[in-house]
Every structure is written in structure tokens, then in C-alpha cells.
Amino acid sequence: MYNIGIDLGGTNIVAAVVDDGYNILGKAKTPTATPRSAQDIFDDIAKVCREAMDAAGVTVGDISCIGMGTPGTVNGEGVIEFANNLGFNNVPAKEMLKERLGDLPVFVENDANCAALGEAHAGCGNGSGNFVAVTLGTGVGSGVIIDGKIVNGVNFAGGEFGHMVISVDGEPCTCGRKGCWEAYASATALIRQTKKAMEENPDSVMHEIVKQEGKINGKTAFDAMRKGDIAGIKVVNNYIKYVACGLINIVNALQPEIICVGGGICNEGDTLLKPLNRYVMAERYSIHSKIQTKIMKAQLGNNAGVIGAALLGSI
Predict the structure, then answer these.
(1) Is the pLDDT of residue 21 over 90?
(2) Residues in CB range of 232: below 8 A, 6 or more apart
(3) pLDDT band (50, 70, 90) for residue 147
(4) What percent of the chain has pLDDT over 70?
(5) CA 295 remoteness from chain centre
(6) Around Cβ 23, how many Cβ atoms within 10 Å?
(7) Are 97 and 286 in contact (CB under 8 A)?
(8) How, if at all, do strands 88-91 and 80-83 pair?
(9) 3-class DSSP state for residue 294?
(10) pTM of the complete model
(11) Which of 298, 217, 195, 286 is nearest to 248 (CA)?
(12) How far apart are CA 188 and CA 193, in angstroms?
């Protein structure tokens, strides 16, 4: 028997058939094409699920359960209470999936939690039961697994480390607070920091890099740093300090076995991970413990969400 994992994103809807060994046997996707009604979006979710089954050469009779990861807050009844980038308010996702795909067991979770579950079991976590996944993207997403279970909190909105404050009255965040980790450590924040450094340093190599690339992105400062550019070095060093500050807070609060770092920025590899590990080792509270949290690069890429969603029925 196999499971279907669905990753409902703001850009694409992806579905995959996953076996017991966490292998993807067939996958399909279609644009989410927001804004539009939940009914239309769920029609397309059902369509890509059927296409994924066709690609895997299986039928609904071969499927044990369906799991879906979605942005926003999902309650214990499988209702998406709020997902601002999809325009969802109290959408009965579990019921809508059953209506379209038959009376299979259906599980619905926050997408960051699904990605964490996927990485914990099939990626860099290697089956770890105490695991945190952090994604440095447009925002800072995070998912927490303690004793093998997803941590949701009393209102199913827990684990949002991107919105812990690391600088009181600091940079404004899209959530309405000031000084959130997301406002300093997201890829969006890095691009903003890079732009500011370029404005203050008209002779920086970053200007030449942007001309060649056509735009400022998360690699701009890192590429300039590798060329010995002082402004680029400063941007990268400050950015890594911001990321490290949040990671150290997570370590001191939860002491997970592994913190997995994902998102496009993690493609910098050791350039990012080595200094992050140094900061964590220097500033962690558990200085004398024999077991220390490892900071590792995510392994599953865009497949983390669908694999984690497919696992929802087994945790």
C-alpha cells in the first residue's frame, strides 16, 4: 500500500505517491493560480492526486491514506482556519478532500510541519525524534518535532520561530511586530540588507555582480564576499549572526538533536553552516553536555513537504 502526499503552496499544488521507504513513485503538479475559490483549488488538488497515481501506476484502491501540507493554521478537525496567502478562512480541507477522492483517511497539517516531518524521517534527521526544521525563504518557516510528535500548541499555531523577537523595537515584520527573527534572517531580509549595503558602498563589487545577474538575490553578497569585497563580507557576516541568534535561542529552548536549515540560502553549504555551528557551540547554554545539537543542511529540497505529508498518517 502507498500514501499520497500533497503540498499546497501559494505558487504550485504538488501531489506525490510515496511508498513505505519514503520513495516518490509518481508526482504531478499544477499552478495554484490564486486568488480563486477554495472549491476550484481543491478540484485541482484532486486532479493532481489522480495524475500522480497515474504516474505511479496505482489506483485509489492501492492508497492507504492522504496527507496534505498547507500554509496557515490547521485545527485538529482538518479545517484550515486561516491561510492569508491563499485567502482561506475556515476551509474544511479534510471534508473537501474526502468528497473528491473517496472515503480514505485524510490528514491535514501546516506545510512547515510537514517539511520538518519529511526531513526528520527521510532526510538529514535520519529518524530523529527531537528535530527542528528551519526554512530561510521569503519568510522564516519552522517546524518542531519532540518525542516524534509535531508540536502544534493549544491553538495549532505553535512552532513559529520566525516570529520570536531577536531585537526589541527592531526592523518591522510582516506579522505586525518589530524585531522578529524573520525580519533579519529570511532571504527577503538578506536581499534588503544587500540593497542597503550597495547604496552605502557605490564601489562595491556587488554592483558588478548585479549587472551580470540582472537582479539582487540571496547569493549577491555571498558572491561578493568570495571576491574579497569588504561590503559583501560585512553583509554576510551580519546575516550569519542574525541566523545564528535564532538558532541558539532554539537550542537553548528545546535542545533538539538536529536543527535542519533549508531554503535557497542553505545552498551556500559550509560557507553558511560552519560559522553557524561555531556560533552555536560558543553561545549555547549546554556548554558541558556530551550531546550537542547539530546544525545540518536540508537534504530533500522541494520534496520534503510531500514526503512529510504522506507520513502524517503514521505518526
Answers:
(1) yes
(2) 197, 204, 205, 206, 220, 221, 222, 223, 224, 225
(3) very high
(4) 100
(5) 15
(6) 12
(7) no
(8) antiparallel
(9) strand
(10) 0.89
(11) 286
(12) 9
